[in-house]
Amino acid sequence: MNIFRLTGDLAHLLAIIILLLKIWKTRSCAGISGKSQILFAIVYTTRYLDLVTTYVSAYNTLMKIFFLGSSFATVYLIYVKFKATYDHNHDTFRIEFLILPAVILALLINHAFTPLEILWTFSIYLESVAILPQLFMVSKTGEAESITSHYLFALGSYRGLYILNWIYRYAMESHYDLIAIVAGIVQTVLYCDFFYLYITKVLKGKKLQLPA
Amino acid sequence: NTKTVVKDEL
After folding, report:
1. Which residue of B has its CA nearest to A8?
2. In A, which residues are within 8 Å of B7 by CB distance?
3. Residue B6 and residue A177 in contact, taking contact as beta carbons nearer than 8 Å
4. What ipTM is given for this predicted complex?
5. Which InterPro entries match (chain A) (predicted)?
């Protein structure tokens, strides 16, 4: 565990907490893409199957359980509890266009052709693009609430910090995982446009509004 | 196939 990995995990944790609190406090999931949240639930489910096969550390186990639990809780809040506030007219990204390529790529490019390994690889590929329905929704409505922007910034920072962690680990431990690294870079690049808007607008107290 | 690595990250 190094400082980049730890802050990355904390940014990820923060993002999830911000999102859950926003929905819970406002009793509304307006502006949140339920489809992105479904994709994240699929990502954690397929990645953390090793919870029952491999023990790494108490930290690792607790975080995995939290990510799994919170992702299902978020999906429940959006599609069941606060269904009436869900903005489905603007959440029109076709997730099969992300899931199918991730499945095919996981079958073609993986570390080992075993069920657990392929599911892990699939989760890595899917995570890298899972935010697209949310970004699509923001671009479609042309704006995002500040709290949604904070959520996106924390979530984008997480994989960015993981890249620093991978550089550090490669230098210090000669440890690297090409699949995670390439997918992590793709994932971070997808946020670049948003990062720019966040820094130039949201941090200056303005609402995140896209030019018409 | 690239080498299998320990999955100690989240």
Report:
1. B10
2. 50, 54, 56, 120
3. no
4. 0.82
5. ER_ret_rcpt
